[in-house]
């Protein structure tokens, strides 16, 4: 169970975080949420699809790392074999806290899961400098958390626009591997390219003005990465 604490430079003055990528630190995950700000980098490495969030019922884009639960085909003995790691993965074990502030902007704070295996007093990156200032590592994490916080709102705008234009369609991927075993990916959604091509100019212009059109093309451009994902799976048989 997570043990979240508000980060502060007194209580956590000696805190360090292990940044090594390994299953022992929770990186054996099959997917993660991704955000418009990073889709250009993500599409170069991973297939991007959409799913319905079980809690909110809303669509969200995700990057796929494996074909089965708790399978990350980019993870090996050398770490994470890709040039880009999505923000939702990079931020671990930190998360952003939001405190409502009536009449003003909500107050944001950095929290940390003290039960994470990444948390250490002796190994990894220092969170604070010797005299209490934020380390370069924490400065990076803070920027990542802010991007994620803003990215959730951007995702809502993107997926609401796609759903409103009826551009999302469910799909199932049936895979037969080299050893004859079969896998099925279901419950996912992608963009209907035929419907996209048939959009009227005004609708396309609206997508562009809202900043969604690039995201649409990044998602579509990522789909050939399914072939690479299957190749990674076959290489482990």
What key attributes describe this structure?
237 residues; 13 strands; globular; alpha+beta; three-stranded antiparallel beta sheet
What can you see in these coordinates?
With 237 residues, the chain is an alpha+beta fold. The chain has one domain. Helices cover 31% and strands 25% of the residues. The chain has a 3-stranded antiparallel β-sheet, covered by helices on one side. It has a 3-stranded antiparallel β-sheet with strand order 10-2-11, with no helix packed on it. A 3-stranded antiparallel β-sheet has the order 3-5-4. Strand 4 (48-52) and strand 5 form a beta hairpin. The longest helix has 29 residues, at 136-164. The radius of gyration is 20 Å and the shape is globular. The mean pLDDT is 94.
Uncertain stretches of 5 or more adjacent residues: none
Instruction: Give the strand content.
Output: 15-25%
The separation of the N and C termini measures 33 Å
Inertia-based shape: globular
Average of per-residue pLDDT values:
94
Number of helices: 7
Structural class, by secondary structure, is: alpha+beta
Going across the biggest sheet, name each strand in turn.
1-9-8
Written as H for each helix and E for each strand, in order along the chain, the element string is EEEHEEEEHEEEEHEEHHHH
Helix content: 25-40%
Largest sheet geometry: 3 strands, antiparallel
How many individual β-strands? 13
Radius of gyration: 20 Å
Number of domains: 1
């Amino acid at each position: 169970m997570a043990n979240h604490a508000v980060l502060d430079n007194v209580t956590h003055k000696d805190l360090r975080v292990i940044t090594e990528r390994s299953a022992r630190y929770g990186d054996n995950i099959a997917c993660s949420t991704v955000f418009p700000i990073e889709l250009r980098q993500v599409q170069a490495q991973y297939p991007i699809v959409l799913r319905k969030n079980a809690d909110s019922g809303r669509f969200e884009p995700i990057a796929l790392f494996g074909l089965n639960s708790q399978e990350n085909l980019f993870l090996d003995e050398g770490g994470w074999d890709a040039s880009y790691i999505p923000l939702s993965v990079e931020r671990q074990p930190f998360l952003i806290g939001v405190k409502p502030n009536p009449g003003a902007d909500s107050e944001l704070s950095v929290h940390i899961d003290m039960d994470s295996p990444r948390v250490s007093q002796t190994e990894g990156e220092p969170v604070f400098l010797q005299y209490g200032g934020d380390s370069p590592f924490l400065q990076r994490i803070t920027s990542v958390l802010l991007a994620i916080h803003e990215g959730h709102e951007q995702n809502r705008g993107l997926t609401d626009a796609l759903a409103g234009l009826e551009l999302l369609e469910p799909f199932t991927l049936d895979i037969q591997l080299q050893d004859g075993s079969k896998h099925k990916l279901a419950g996912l959604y992608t963009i209907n390219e035929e419907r996209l091509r048939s959009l009227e100019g005004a609708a396309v212009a609206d997508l562009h003005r809202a900043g969604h059109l690039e995201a649409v093309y990044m998602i579509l451009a990522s789909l050939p990465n399914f072939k690479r994902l299957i190749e990674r799976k076959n290489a482990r048989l």
